[in-house]
Amino acid sequence: MKKLKYCILGILVAFSLGFYSCQNDDVSGPDKAGSSEEVFTVTEVVTTKGGSFISGLGTYKTGDNVTLEAPPYAYIKGNSDKGESIDKKYTDTTGKSNATAEISRIGANWVVSWTDETPSATITFEAGDGGTIGTPKSVSGKPGDSATGPTATANSGYAFDKWSDGCTTATWSGKIPSSGCTVTAKFKEDTPKEVNVSVSISASKTMSGIRISASHDANTSLPAITLSIEQWIVNSSGTASHKNFSITIPAGSKSTSYIIPDTSDYDLSNGECYSVSPTEHKSGNTTYKISASKSW
Q1: Contact 247, 215 (CB under 8 A)
Q2: Which of the 8 DSSP states describes residue 293?
């Protein structure tokens, strides 16, 4: 009887242990199935001073490394729903490479954005004594970029000299500096000058007639110079008469020639230039006095 009692007790204990084990199996089964990898997202907020990311947005598995890429000069910021943050400014100051930021071993959802931090500098222009400048009065841009500024105009009695940064053309042009600055147009007094210009006239016989040549000695470009010439003619019977004609040195040229087609009765020992036009020419603050002389 006693043995039977212990046998029944043993059966009950074994049954209880088996039931408890089945219960644990039922509970642990769903937990095991729910332990798969989590998925996280990286999304953006587009700011008024930024734009969309070039790459890096999307869905990632737990532990993935994420590289965010934005245009040059971008300042990248972001926060996760677990309180993490990134705050990364561009490192390439030449603007040749895109800006990047890293999220290491992602384990949360992120919201990121970037703003454009492209550097800029402004050149302000002003006129010194003796002249004025046009527009623009200032130019701005990225350091190293080419730019064109205003044109300097000298007052009466002055001449443009140069800009304070070394530019020697009246219209400023150059590169945007690394920081803002002021550039001044400089002028100098322009003392009035007079230059005498001599126009020489010569004549020579050719097979086709009398060649009349004229040239001037000015070391600058002059307007067209017209010479009126009176040439004496002695015919075969000894009767003297004269003929008038004109010859013009074209604008910008230094010499010209003209052929009188009839050679039979010209006496090269006589004749004169009786007028020249214009008699003077003004360029800037210099006046060129024009006169003519013959050499026949």
Answers
A1: no
A2: E
Neighbours of 156 (CB within 10 A): 7
What is the three-class DSSP state of 3? helix
Q: How many angstroms separate the CA atoms of 142 and 73, rounded?
A: 11
Mean pLDDT (the chain) is 83
- How far apart, in whole angstroms, are the C-alpha atoms of residue 196 and residue 215? 14
Q: Which residue has the tokens 């199935």?
A: 33
Residue 217 Rama label (left phi>0; alpha psi -120 to 50; beta)? alpha
Collapsed DSSP state (helix, strand, coil) of residue 90:
coil
The residue behind tokens 């053309």 is 169
- Amino acid, single-letter form, for residue 135: T
Biggest CA–CA distance in the chain, Å, is: 187
For 218-272, the pLDDT digits (tens) are 888 888 988 887 766 665 566 666 677 788 999 999 999 988 776 555 555 556 6
Contact of 199 with 291, CB cutoff 8 Å: yes
Note the helical H segments in the chain: 2-33
Residue 55 per-residue DSSP state: B
Identify residue 188 by its one-letter amino acid code.
K
Query: Minimal CA–CA distance to 189: which of 131, 134, 132, 133?
Result: 131
Is a pLDDT exceeding 60 seen at residue 41? yes
Distances (CA, A) of 41 to 20, 106, 141: 42, 9, 37
Look at the chain and count its residues: 296
Number of Cβ within a 10 Å radius of residue 284: 10
